[in-house]
């Protein structure tokens, strides 16, 4: 069902892949894009569990907006293994204004479809989603 505010539909494949990442841990990350013609959020890229954060950041296009989820594994100062699922709204300064507006207006509805997001991050350039920023958001 399309969102009346943005007219954006979320494909079932997006929801299924996210459930696989969350429950089965089959994926390290998923990058989503909006297909403007179809008025739908679709999957752009999926990273396998062995992928690094660096691999993930290289998947983000230099001048196009994207949504992404990243399953970040870390060890707490108390030596406990944990993971947090990050939602990243990538909106580079160099992307088209129309694209930035479309991604911004569709973000909340899309996030609601992905139950289990623990941390949200918005980035307009790579420094705003560096590994240090990610670690800071989980208090490392």
Features:
6 strands; 140 residues; alpha/beta; disordered N terminus
Report on this model:
- With 140 residues, the chain is of the alpha/beta class.
- It is 31% helix and 30% strand.
- The chain has helices at residues 12-24, 53-58, 97-113, 131-137; strands at 9-10, 29-35, 40-47, 66-75, 81-90, 119-123.
- A six-stranded mixed sheet has the order 1-3-2-4-5-6.
- The termini are far apart.
**Overall pLDDT confidence:** 93
The number of distinct β-strands equals 6
Task: Tell me the overall shape.
Answer: globular
Content of β-strand = 25-35%
Instruction: Please work out how many helical segments DSSP would assign.
Output: 4
Instruction: Name the helicity range.
Output: 25-40%
Given the helix and strand composition, which structural class is it?
alpha/beta
Radius of gyration: 15 Å
Main sheet characteristics: 6 strands, mixed
Low-pLDDT windows of residues? 1-5
Instruction: Summarize the helix and strand pattern as letters.
Output: EHEEHEEHEH
Short description:
This protein is of the alpha/beta class and 140 residues long. The protein contains four helices and six strands. Mean pLDDT is 93; it is low at 1-5.
Q: SSE layout and pairings?
A:
Layout (H helix, E strand, L loop, with lengths): L8 E2 L1 H13 L4 E7 L4 E8 L5 H6 L7 E10 L5 E10 L6 H17 L5 E5 L7 H7 L3
Parallel strand pairs: 1-3, 5-6
Antiparallel strand pairs: 2-3, 2-4, 4-5
């Amino acid at each position: 069902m399309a969102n009346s505010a943005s007219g954006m539909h979320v494909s079932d494949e997006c929801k299924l892949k996210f459930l696989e990442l969350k429950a089965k841990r089959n994926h390290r990350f998923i990058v989503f894009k909006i297909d403007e013609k179809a008025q739908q959020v679709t999957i752009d890229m999926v990273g396998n569990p062995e992928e690094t954060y660096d691999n993930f950041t290289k998947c983000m296009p230099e001048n196009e907006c994207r949504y992404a989820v990243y399953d970040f594994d870390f060890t707490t100062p108390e030596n406990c293994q944990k993971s947090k699922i990050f939602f990243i709204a990538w909106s580079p300064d160099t992307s088209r204004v129309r694209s930035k507006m479309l991604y911004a207006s569709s973000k909340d509805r899309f996030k609601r479809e992905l139950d289990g997001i623990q941390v949200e991050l918005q980035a307009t350039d790579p420094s705003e989603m560096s590994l240090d920023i990610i670690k800071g958001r989980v208090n490392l």
